[in-house]
Amino acid sequence: MAFSYVNRSGNGSEKAFTFSFEGQDDGYIREEDLVVTVGGVLAPFSLLSSNTLELVDAPPIGEGNVLIRRIMPKDVPYADFKRGNNFGQEVLNNSFLQLLYVVHEILDGFFPEGYTVRDAVVFLEDVMLNADLYVDGKVEVTNSDSTIGNSVVNFEKGDERYKVPFDEAVVALQSADANLQNQLTGNVPLAASAFSPISWHDQVIQNSVTIPDDKNAWSFGPVMSVAQGVAVTLGEGSYWTIAEGSDISSNDLQNIDQGEL
Asked: Which range, 66-70, 146-150, 156-160, 229-233, has the best average confidence (pLDDT)?
């Protein structure tokens, strides 16, 4: 569903095209908010009626090569609410409609240059109109081409391209778990180790680990917890000992053989 644009197809002879946008009344506020491109190039036009326009030249034959957009100013509000200004119904309505119509543009996949979503979406630089931000008083024109796969207008719910950052985070977490597990199982052996006079570790276990069979493992309290969604699994014949208190002897250590703190 499109909110702020329509595509029409040229047939080589027709100059007049109808259009409509989501919104109130005519679906736009001012004539200067309307922009037409043919094949990505600005095309001059005149209004025949509120929702019919005529181009100067008939577009060549091409499916969807005529793009009619509603583009709202994004640097200034519709009205300036100062003492003495007109606060009539039309001014108030259009002030709110300007914001609504800007949201429509974003929902349709038209983003201003430098918008942060560019980090995740290929913007079609080769088919975007290279124009000044303002052309004849009209704001920037961009063209998100629905025929190109990486266009933002082609993103759908559940699209694999949305999953990339999430998948990378999962891989990083799995890698951290695997690295820790390799140390526990001896795949990354430590020939010797010693405690300094003062040593410390976190109070929350953030990675899932499995203590191998026939091992003694330990942590130091008095506060230890396991993060939500994380599991500590004890191997057969293994013990996980948590030292409680700040002054404790080895005889006071309590064996935990069920993974419970």
From this structure: 66-70
Integer angstrom CA distances of residue 166 from 170, 173, 215: 6, 11, 35
Q: What percent of the chain has pLDDT over 70?
A: 67
pLDDT digits (tens, 9 = 90+) for 94-148: 889 999 999 999 888 887 666 655 444 444 443 344 333 334 444 444 444 455 5
This model's pTM is above 0.70? no
**DSSP string covering the chain, please?**
--SSEEEEEE-SS--EEE---SSSTTS-S-GGGEEEEETTEE--EEEEETTEEEESSPPPSEEEEEEEEE---SSS-S----TTS---HHHHHHHHHHHHHHHHHHHTT---TT-GGGGTS---TTTS----S-BTTB-------TTSTTSGGG--TT-GGGGHHHHHHHHHHHHHHHHHHHHHHTSS--S-----SS----SEE-S-EEEPTT-EEEEE-S--EE-TT--EEEPTT-EEEEE-SSS--GGG-EEE-SS--
**pLDDT confidence of residue 153:** 54
Domain ranges of the chain: 5-161, 199-261
Nearest to 40 by CA among 147, 149, 113, 143: 143
Instruction: Give the integer Cα–Cα distance in Å for 101 and 71.
Output: 8
Find all residues with CB under 8 Å of 240, minimum gap 6, and list them: 211, 217, 218, 219, 232, 234, 255, 256, 257, 259
Check residues 122 and 183 and name the one with the higher pLDDT: 183
